[in-house]
Write a structure and sequence with these properties.
Helix content is about 30%, strand content about 25%. It is built from 8 helices and 10 strands. The protein has a 6-stranded mixed β-sheet with strand order 6-7-8-3-9-10, sandwiched between helices. Strands 2-1-4-5 form a 4-stranded antiparallel β-sheet, covered by helices on one side. A hairpin with a 2-residue loop joins strand 4 and strand 5. The protein starts with a helix and ends in a 9-residue tail after the last strand.
Amino acid sequence: MNSDRAITRGSNAVGVPPVGAPSADVVAAIRGVSKVYSLGGHQVKALDNVSIDFRQGDFVAIMGSSGSGKSTLLNVLGCLDRPTAGQYYLAGQDVAVMDDETLSRVRGRYLGFIFQSYNLIQQLSVVENIEVPLSYQRPPMPGGRERCLKLAELVGLSGRLGHRPTELSGGQQQRVAIARALVNNPHVILADEPTGNLDTATSHDIMNLLDALNQAGRTIVMVTHENDIAERARRIVRLRDGRIESVADVRPALLSTR
């Protein structure tokens, strides 16, 4: 797909940013969010009054140059960083009023994470790595091991259950990470450069898997610097200097029944 054509298929104008509490079909909503860091005695504004909604069945690629704020936005969405100003609603709940314990519980319930470097535990097998998020659940999820086995099959690793990460290719390790992200049945999958360490063919295999998950109703927010990967999403959001520069529709939004 030609990059320029994909970007111009929808509107590039940011338009009127969303305000107020989100509607029922919005699983994550950012309202006037800013994030300021203190670095060497200087104030650095990583996000500057950002507002955006992510709806059920959305697949959004976030792009921008280094320092544009894309990683900070993903950290805020992942409840890994609290905004300096503004509001973040996750599944209709205002994150700002949550204490750390509640925030951790909500993060584990509603969010799944996929990282560029996989972040697998080297001493654990494939199925044990998939199980890791379940170890934090109280009470434990009934049938947790069975769910892990089904997810391993879903990502094509049912024949590698006992293998350690060092015995897997990069693509296989990322498949383990995807299964791990799904084990808690999250509302939103946050992917930080999920194909950044992979070759072209393996990257497209991983994107085919993410696309299938989105077709099944999963909401995916993905940071990437690769245009061909971004064009697999439904919307492309470009950041510059901590602000939303453009929002472009790449293909029609999925009407999710999840």
